[in-house]
Design goal:
alpha+beta
């Protein structure tokens, strides 16, 4: 029993050191000086997370005024009684979604790009897939790759098109191509019908 207690205490200390349990759910806001400066104004004001498979993750995330660890961070306000959700960059080189800013515990994560020179959030098209923590029937938590999860600049997000996001990153382009081909075929048919009438 003492071993279990010691392990639990170690784990709690580690989480506190990483910002997991600090007041206000905003722990882990370490000094940004060690991570360099970022111009948060150059980052999208609002993001849309969609198709995560967890309703508490999906929604609109607003950019926070202050960066976290040299990257922009985002907050998704929730109805009263629900925990606030954050999208932030973690020191392990990952973008994460969690109820505690900068925490070790998370609901979803994705690797950061090595060429992350501008310190932008993981917007579509993004080269890596998100992993979401899901609970199975035995109440065990497992990370599951969730290729349908998308993070989109809300300025370009059309809710009516969100069903396409679960398929491929270039689904919007494919849809536009299909619509253009369909329009071309209709125009061609109309032109053929009009030709015999002119003769």
């Amino acid at each position: 029993k003492k071993e279990k207690k010691d392990k639990k205490e170690k784990k709690e200390k580690k989480e506190k050191a990483d910002g997991g349990d600090e007041a206000g759910g905003e722990g882990g806001g370490e000094s940004d000086t060690e991570y360099g400066e970022v111009d948060v104004a150059a980052c999208p004001e609002r993001l849309q997370v969609t198709n995560s498979g967890m309703s508490k993750l999906d929604g609109v995330y607003d950019r926070m005024e202050q960066p976290n660890r040299g990257r922009p961070c985002y907050v998704s306000p929730r109805p009263e009684g629900k925990k606030t959700v954050y999208l932030y960059w973690h020191k392990r080189g990952q973008w994460r979604i969690s109820t505690s800013l900068g925490a070790e515990k998370y609901f979803a994560k994705v690797d950061s790009c090595k060429e992350d020179l501008h310190r932008q959030p993981p917007l579509e098209p993004y080269p890596f897939g998100w992993k979401v923590v899901l609970t199975d029937a035995d109440k065990k938590k497992n990370e599951q790759v969730t290729p349908s999860l998308r993070v989109i600049d809300a300025a370009f997000f059309e809710a009516s098109e969100s069903h396409l996001l679960g398929f491929e990153p270039d689904a919007f382009n494919r849809k536009a191509d299909l619509e253009a081909k369909s329009h071309k075929k209709r125009s061609h048919k109309k032109q053929r019908k009009a030709e015999p009438a002119a003769a």
